Amino acid sequence: IASGPRSDARSMISWLILSLAPASLLQGVTTLATQDLAAIPFLWAIPLILSLLSFALGFSSRPLPASLKSVVPIWGAVLIVLSLLPVPLPVWLSLPLHFGGIFLLSLLLHRQLYAARPASAELTRYYLFIAIGGALGGALNAVAAPLMFSTLREYPLGLSLALLLISAERRPALGPQFL
After folding, report:
1. Contacts with 35 (C-beta within 8 Å, 6 or more apart), sequence order
2. Whole-model pTM over 0.85
3. Please, are residues 92 and 37 in contact by the beta-carbon 8 Å criterion?
4. Secondary structure of residue 31 in the 3-state scheme
C-alpha cells in the first residue's frame, strides 16, 4: 500500500483530471465508432473492455515497456488529425487504430493515477475522486458537448487533454500534479 504524501487540493484536482480524461476518451471513441465509423452490433463493448483492461494494467505493479511513452504521443496526435479531418480509412484499419490508441492513452493515464495514489489512510478519498472524475468525464461528453458542439469535437478535445497530461508527466517540474 502506498505511503505517499498527504493529499492536498492539488492532488485531488489531479486525481479528478487523471480519471476524467480516460472516461472522456472511452465515451468519445465509442461515439465515433458507433456513429461515424461502423454500425456493428455490440461494437461499444470493445472500447469498454479495453478501458477496463487499461485500468487493471495501469493499477498493477508490473512495469510498462519504456517504448510506450515515446510511441503513444505520436499515435495520439495521429488520432487527433484523423478525428478532425475527413480522412477516409477502411473500417478494418480505422477501428483498431482508434481502439488501440485509446487503450494505450488510457493505460498511461491510469498508470499516472496509480503513481499519484496517497497513503493508505486517504485511499477512500482517492477512490471517491476517481469516481467523481469518471462521472464528470462522462457528463462532459454526454451532456455538455452536444450542447456546445454540432459535431463530434469532444473526442479530439479528450485526446488533446490526454496528450497534455502524458507530456506533463514527463517533465519533472510539472509532474502528474501540474495544476
Report:
1. 152
2. yes
3. no
4. helix
